[in-house]
Amino acid sequence: LINSYVNRTDLGLVRDLAPNGKTILGAKQTLKMPVLNIVGDKSPHVDATVTFNGRLDPAKCTWMKIRDAAMVLEEQPTTVAEAISLFLQGLGYVIKKGQAQSTPTFAQEFAQEQKTQTP
């Protein structure tokens, strides 16, 4: 596993877009599927995700930085779940919500913070 990690190669992804926003015929390799790129604002990998996002077609990628987290799946799981849900809804998928959430959503937490910070 360590050897595979050390000897990994670059994916060779490149953003080749014409000035009109369309992909150039014969363009180099890029991802063709929608991508949700999530990183925590305290993560040491923020720059790497920005670089990766810059190599993708802007019409097919979404980059999101979650505040107050380094490892977003461990520190902000509800925020990540909400982001994935909204991303899928944007692609046209319907997400059925289960029972009422026991933890507040990102929007609810943000609204609560705004109320407490207002003089």
Could you give the topology of this structure?
Layout: H1 2-6, E1 35-40, H2 46-54, E2 61-66, H3 72-75, H4 77-90, H5 106-117
Parallel strand pairs: 1-2
Ends: how far apart?
54 Å
Uncertain parts: none
Indicate the structural class: alpha+beta
Radius of gyration: 18 Å
What's the tally of helices?
A: 5
What is the H/E order?
Answer: HEHEHHH
Strand percent estimate: 5-15%
Look at the structure and give the mean pLDDT.
Answer: 81
* Helix content class: 25-40%
In what order do the strands lie side by side in the largest sheet?
Answer: 1-2
> How is the main sheet built?
2 strands, parallel
The backbone outline, from C-alpha atoms, is: globular
The total count of strands amounts to 2
